[in-house]
Specification:
By secondary structure, the chain is of the alpha/beta class. The protein has one domain: L-arginine/glycine Amidinotransferase, Chain A, CATH 3.75.10. It has a 3-stranded mixed beta sheet, with helices on one face. A 3-stranded mixed beta sheet has the order 3-4-5. The chain has a 3-stranded mixed beta sheet with strand order 6-7-8, with helices on one face. β9 and β10 form a beta hairpin. The chain is globular.
Length: 231
């Protein structure tokens, strides 16, 4: 199992992540999109249980890493760019049943892949940044998404985005701090530093999953933790 993370992730987090994977790829890009999200995997790739779709202008370093590790992937149609529409193309997520995105925003390749799933139209273009799926439950830091989830009658846990750190902005998003291996939910930092941390820890336990805090400092929004494996 291999991890893909923002190169700017705190060193302590990287060191602790080494305990759970065979190798780590530290992602970064220059002059492709906004600096704040330039190292975020969730801006350049979409992943669900059966598919990994990456932007055609993903860095050569990441492509070489995936090829070297024999990870199966396909290229999307449109490249990531510097405006809102082309920086959110791959920033969406899905479960076995649902496809979460702002309607019409994802790359056409992802829309086709998820066409048989039930679309949950949310008001936030950066879907993967703002939410994470644990089975059929959603963890989110966006009130607009909460309203959409209530309407769709989907279970959720709201986590206040205050004190989630991100480069160049006041606050990050909870989805960008998370990833999962098997039944372990890993965080880029320590959720217990946050006022909603204990409640989230208990909530995750009710889903029969284990919380792993990879650092002792506040949560860092690094575009999520992406885990991939060989074919």
């Amino acid at each position: 199992m291999y991890a893909i993370i923002d190169k700017r992730t705190p060193l302590e987090v990287k060191k602790n992540l080494e305990k759970y994977v065979d190798d780590i790829f530290e992602f970064s890009s220059e002059d492709i999109t906004y600096n704040a999200i330039s190292g975020h995997p969730d801006i350049f790739m979409f992943q669900d249980a059966n598919k990994l779709i990456i932007a055609p202008n993903t860095t050569k370093e990441l492509i070489n890493f995936l090829d070297k590790k024999a990870v199966n992937y396909t290229f999307g149609t449109n490249p990531v760019g510097k405006n809102i529409d082309n920086s959110v193309l791959y920033n969406c997520l899905s479960t076995k049943k649902y496809f979460f995105c702002k309607k019409g925003k994802p790359d056409i390749s992802i829309q086709k892949w998820c066409s048989l799933k039930q679309l949950v139209n949310i008001p936030q273009s950066y879907a993967r940044c703002s939410m994470f799926t644990l089975d059929d439950t959603i963890i989110t830091s966006d009130n607009g998404i909460v309203k959409a989830l209530k309407k769709a009658e989907i279970a959720y846990f709201y986590f206040d985005p205050s004190e989630i750190r991100i480069i160049d902005h006041k606050n990050g998003f909870i989805g960008g701090t998370m990833g999962m291996i098997d039944n372990k939910v890993l965080f880029l930092g320590n959720i217990l530093k946050h006022k909603d941390g204990k409640a989230l820890d208990k909530y995750i336990a009710t889903l029969k999953k284990e919380t792993i805090c990879l650092g002792n400092d506040y949560l860092y929004d690094g575009g999520g933790l992406f885990f991939v494996s060989s074919k």
